[in-house]
Design a protein that fits this description.
single chain; 3 domains
């Protein structure tokens, strides 16, 4: 990471901001409005900009874009995971998809791109988050990765399916292993395709998955995204053909398939899984059109343990 030697000859306003930055819970990301709150009195916007520019020249801050500064008061850039709570405030969010799969041992791929599933309050908030993530890419080498915002497709983020974990020293909300599996069929394109989803599902069959929790999450998501039953059922059925898993959990997996089949049969509607709607194969049991591209990915993934 880049280090910068900072001159600590600071003015009164600079000192007030600096003291907040070096506190144990000091912000890793700073905006002018955040900085204003640290000052004992009110100053004009031009004076505030001058103060922040001065702190940047002294190595305390690093400007990554208009109105967005990294806290480098320690002489080092923060880690990318440290920035999640500041970028994704105040909507509900969790670290998920590929980073979560790696954390739970479903994938060996060490993440560089940290996908964050979040529920924006409005378009303005979504634009602000997208802009900040884009700005932070300018410092990705020093931060050790990038943030990728992913709007929640089921329109709901609750405590169910989300836990707390420490990643590289930062405590963050992260999808549970059960939620991560369900997300594999909601965000298949984002994780790298159906082949990646199958690798996660096969790995999960050898792990102590809470099938009751998995059932609850699927049914909750189904109320908003009906296609999840057919997609997830097809994925688990495919994984079971490739790997039986622990014999003690096979009955639980079979019971889950029964539930998914019942959910899929509730409607006469059919659903798609994959980017190509014109080139698909239909699976009547799951009311599901699977793209040829995804089927080819599944066949390729079948050769990997």
């Amino acid at each position: 990471m880049r280090t910068r030697r900072a001159s600590r000859v600071l003015g009164a306003n600079e000192t007030a901001i600096y003291r907040r930055l070096v506190e144990p819970d000091g912000p890793k990301l700073l905006t002018p409005s955040d900085a204003m709150k640290t000052l004992p009195g009110t100053i004009g916007s031009s004076s505030l900009v001058h103060t922040l520019s001065s702190l940047e020249s002294k190595g305390v801050l690093r400007r990554v874009g208009r109105g967005v500064y990294l806290n480098e008061s320690t002489g080092l850039a923060p880690k990318i995971v440290d920035l999640l709570p500041f970028v994704f405030r105040p909507p509900r969010y969790y670290l998920g998809l590929n980073a979560a799969a790696n954390h739970w041992g479903l994938s060996p791929q060490i993440p560089y791109s940290y996908q964050v599933v979040y529920l924006p309050a409005d378009r303005a908030q979504a634009r602000r988050i997208a802009r900040w993530c884009l700005l932070l890419k300018r410092a990705e080498r020093d931060l050790g990765g990038i943030l990728v915002p992913v709007a929640a497709r089921d329109g709901l983020i609750t405590s169910k399916g989300v836990s707390q974990a420490v990643l590289e020293g930062a405590q963050l909300p992260i999808s549970t292993v059960e939620r991560t599996l369900v997300d594999a069929v909601l965000y298949t394109g984002e994780i790298g395709g159906a082949g990646e989803a199958l690798l996660w599902a096969k790995a999960a069959l050898s792990k102590p998955i809470d099938y009751e929790e998995l059932d609850r999450i699927v049914q909750e998501v189904y109320e908003r995204v009906n296609s999840v039953a057919g997609r997830f059922g097809f994925l688990i059925e495919t994984a079971l053909r490739e790997r039986d898993g622990n014999a003690g959990w096979r009955s639980s997996a079979d019971a889950l398939l029964t539930t998914l089949g019942t959910l899929a049969a509730r409607t006469r509607a059919t659903y798609n899984w994959g980017p190509e709607k014109g080139k698909t194969e239909y699976f009547e049991k799951w009311h599901l059109h699977v793209s040829v591209d995804y089927l080819n990915q599944l066949r390729e993934a079948s050769s990997f343990d």
